[in-house]
Amino acid sequence: MKKNSVRQLTISALLVAMGIIIPMVMPRITIGPASFTLASHVPVFLAMFFSPGVAVAVSLGTGFGFFLSATPIIAVRALSHLLFALIGAMYLQKHPTIVLTKNKFSLFNGRFQLFNFVIGLIHSAAELAIVSAFYTMGNMPETYYTQGYMYSIFLLMGIGGLIHSLVDYNIAYFVANALSKQFDIPVFSQAKKLEQVKITILPQETRI
């Protein structure tokens, strides 16, 4: 039990560090006035494949980390990740087999991509609400007001944020699958066990 807690704490710390460093080093796609950093959400998404506890720890860790290194709006947006991370991690824990299709990994896995889309909606809706509040209070850069709410906030931050989320979760999905071949990624390990049980039971049922 203690060994498992230390492992989860270590994984959480590593993912928090990644979550703070990635926005500093990864390339950005700028569509004025907004910008999107490739893979910036990947550490939080990876945490969801471990456990709800790790997902919460990484969301809180990156959020508070950004309070020290970035603007308040970026920090609050990072803290909002707690919502989708906890919901997603709990769902994955209960339904791990959605990460595999026919006992194999595939980016064209319809069940996982539907899950990805729902998480993306929660993710973008939470951030949109926060950015909208800052916009209403007049705390955004002038360029956002020049472009107007529908373009600079709803379209870029809302729809653009959804697309960003979908891309980053697929990156995390690919990375988690690759790591699961060498390390214990709980959701993937559990999915493989359950799929193997199905493969073992089905032939017996066929014979009956």
TrEMBL record:
From what superkingdom does this record's organism come? Answer: Bacteria
Q: Where are the transmembrane segments?
A: 6-26, 38-68, 74-93, 114-137, 149-167
Please provide the record's keywords in A-Z order: Membrane, Transmembrane, Transmembrane helix
Q: Does the keyword Transmembrane helix apply?
A: yes
Write the protein's name: Niacin transporter NiaX
The organism named in the record is Enterococcus plantarum
